[in-house]
Amino acid sequence: MKLKFLIFFLVLPFIMVAQHNFVLNGTCSKNANKKIIYLTYQVNGKRITKSSEISSNKFVFKGEIDFPVKAIICTDPNFYMTNLNSKIFYLEPCIMNAKLDFNNLNTIAINGSKTNEEFYALQNTTENEKIHKKIDSIRELSKFYSVKMSTTIDNALKIQFQKSLDSLDQQLDQFVDQNIKINRKSGFEFIKKNPNSFIAPDLLDDLLIEEDEQIPYDTIKNLYNKLASEVKKSYGGKQLAEKLIDFENSRIGSLAPDFKGNDIGGNLLQISSFKNNKYVLLDFWASWCGPCREDFPFLKEMYSKYKDKGFEIVGVTRDEKLDLWRAAIQKENVEKWKHFSIKENKSTIEDTYAVTAIPTKILIDKNGIIIGRWIGSSVENTAAIKNMIIEIFDN
Prior knowledge:
alpha+beta, Immunoglobulin-like, Glutaredoxin, 46% helix
């Protein structure tokens, strides 16, 4: 009996670690004593950031989590991430070990986490590695030509170097797009085959962000429904469930979620007040967003033509610095329509309308039904919005 109790108390610490706590033991391959390394992750939407001083080329992070969670390890305290100073990985409620070069976290090796092994295996396919090598080589060439252009005084050579840089930028865009498509496809297949994996909610979240143009919402919802119950209970699983509800409520054909607050002039603004009276275009933007501001000329054209026929625009800003927001409105001469600050109103409107990128534009009809939704700034989106508005008011 005494032996059984002894065994129980010996294994108890390991049981506790496995169930609720994580330990990340780190070893640096080169001398990094006295340097600080940082870790951040989210638990139920709350960001947790830890730091650890490296001593004898070793460091340790400890914390409490109930489920595997995506994390970032970084050598920059502000988490300004580069390929060299940071790495995304999965923490798991267990003991993990990491080996790294402090000056190049891209080479980090982490073991002890099944979830992280799944994550890295998905990222490091042969196809992905080939594209990453091409992307890296293009970036190196871009650096080379940028240095050449900055050091030469020959204008003819400058023009030649700029043409090379432009060509490399186009190639880079193509390979980045190709990489996104490959990741989307591999992620989609992984979710179907691995409903018990804790990375599945994050992969579904990535698909959901682009669902307007890629994988339909119903397909994503069906994949979520097939996830294991334990995965649905995880931090990522619960956040995904909330996002799915927001997407469901803000899709084309849905009744536009109501919101209210004060506009830029301090007057009450409530979206439901336009019902049975006006068509409303919600324009999610920010003063620092170039593509957002590039859309203002055509928005001004539409507003000028149709404001007296029952057309209203409500600009919803992501700006943190409200003085820059107000200055941009004046500079762009768009004071005539309504403006709403997320920060000033402490609003959750972006979550409510499932806005994951700006610019995003959402058109609501007189019955309060969402009839159009566009992400990004493009010739195609501008044409689609114009055509819909013209068809509404000119027919």
